[in-house]
Specification:
Aspartate Aminotransferase, domain 1, alpha/beta, Aspartate Aminotransferase, domain 2, seven-stranded mixed beta sheet, 16% strand
Length: 438
């Protein structure tokens, strides 16, 4: 008989450790749309793990690619060396990136991608002789990972308050969520594009535009509870950045690889940034990997500024373009293409939207926000107990309904694998409806 699992030693991330360890929720295997729990139950994955298993779990092609790579070469350095799959991976990513973004710097996750992009932005201006541009602009309720750069430009209070000062010279735009005018919007909200004007009217009035290096935003804010940009909002941000020579960075760690029915949110919105940060769905979460996709002109500025045979950018990670990650990424891109998963997500989006908005009018439902295969369901908070109501729904969904959801505060966030079918969409939202009605 197996001995009881000792849960004492693992300090779990973003988890109420004491609550979890009093009644652990253990997943022991996964396949397709489902996890299997340690008590043998099938758990429908309504969150693609953590916004990342877009092609479903344990896809045979991806598993085989990782196994074959591990057997042939487990690791190779990419400092002054290389391996073929690193370059093949970069080319495969550029093939689906927006036009003009064609240089790739690999890292290991979204947090590293954010810090990489911020460093590229600061160094780019400096090597061009524009060293005054040291200020970075983020957005309230923005989530850009947990590195010091990411929490500096991020705008979620809980991710910042315990760590004291992070980076100097950072400011934040207001977020565009406006439930008063846009509650229960289907897709892009009608109202709020003027909030982008705050960048010019407040931020640039307060700080000399010549001191601002970059603006970083999530095209769709995910981890904070699904904030969908109003119509025309991102287009305005692009125009303001162009006007003042400010780099625009899209954090597409969540929205990349089909979440909105296109390769990137940049494609969906028709707005091309200067850099795209991606991770998660890049390898279908099978092996950690992140990347920053950069305009060629930015890359070339580094090449031109450094003496021949000199390192042009003093930055990198031991595991950049790790062979296993590169193999997983190449296989993942093949799966996306062969199974046409981005088009599938676009086709399912209207059905997913209708199912999400079927919850309108149920007890405690304050707002529903959706775009592509992602939605946020905001609940009324219990007086004096923020977050308790949504977490109670999370527990009942897992234990009673066999459904995995994600919560942030009193917002339920759903982002299922792109392989979900209509019956599984029905199961997901019917389960939530029954819980809310109870």
């Amino acid at each position: 008989m197996a001995s009881p699992l000792n849960t004492d030693h693992f300090w779990m991330p973003f988890t109420a450790n004491r609550q979890f360890k009093s009644k652990p929720r253990m997943l022991v295997s996964a396949q397709g749309m489902y996890y299997t729990s340690d008590d043998g139950r099938q758990i429908l994955d309504g969150t693609a793990g953590l916004w990342c298993s877009n092609a479903g779990h344990c896809h045979p092609k991806i598993v085989q690619a990782i196994q074959q790579q591990a057997a042939s070469m487990d690791f190779a350095p990419v400092f002054q060396m290389g391996h073929p799959k690193a370059f093949e991976s970069a080319s495969a990513l550029v093939a689906i990136a927006p036009e003009g973004l064609n240089r790739v710097f690999f890292c290991n996750d979204g947090s590293e991608g954010v810090d990489t992009a911020l460093k590229i932005a600061l160094a780019y201006h400096r090597i061009r002789g524009d060293a005054l541009r040291t200020r970075l602009i983020g957005r309230e309720r923005g989530y850009h990972g947990v590195g010091f750069g990411g929490i500096a430009v991020g705008g979620i209070a809980g991710n910042r308050k315990h760590f004291g000062p992070t980076l100097a010279g950072v400011d934040h735009l207001r977020h565009p969520l406006d439930i008063g005018r846009n509650a229960f919007s289907r897709g892009l909200p009608e109202h709020g594009a003027e909030l982008a004007d705050e960048f010019e009217q407040r931020i640039l009035a307060l700080h000399d535009p010549a001191t601002i290096a970059a603006l970083i935003v999530e095209p769709l804010q995910g981890s904070t509870g699904v904030i969908v940009p109003p119509k025309g909002y991102l287009q305005k941000l692009r125009m303001i950045c162009d006007k003042y020579g400010i780099l625009l960075i899209f954090d597409e760690v969540i929205t990349g690889f089909g979440r909105l029915g296109s390769a990137f949110a940049a494609d969906y919105f028709g707005v091309v940034p200067d850099m795209i940060i991606c991770a998660k769905g890049l390898t279908n979460a099978s092996v950690p990997m992140g990347a920053v996709i950069v305009r060629q002109a930015i890359h070339d500025a580094f090449m031109s500024a450094a003496p021949e045979n000199a390192i042009e950018f003093f930055h990198g990670y031991t595991y950049s373009a790790h062979p296993l990650a590169a193999a997983a990424m190449l296989a993942t891109m093949e799966v996306y293409r062969e199974e046409q998963l981005f088009a599938r997500a676009a086709e399912l989006a209207p059905y997913f939207e209708d199912a999400a908005h079927s919850l309108r009018g149920l007890p405690y439902v304050k707002d529903i926000r959706n775009l592509g295969l992602v939605c946020g369901i905001e609940l009324e908070s219990q007086p004096g107990k923020p977050g308790v109501r949504a977490f109670d729904v999370f527990l009942k969904a897992f234990w009673d309904k066999g459904v995995l959801i994600r919560t942030t505060g009193d917002i339920i966030a759903l982002s299922p694998p792109l392989i979900i079918d209509k019956a599984q969409i029905d199961q997901l939202f019917t389960s939530l409806a029954e819980i809310l009605q109870s």
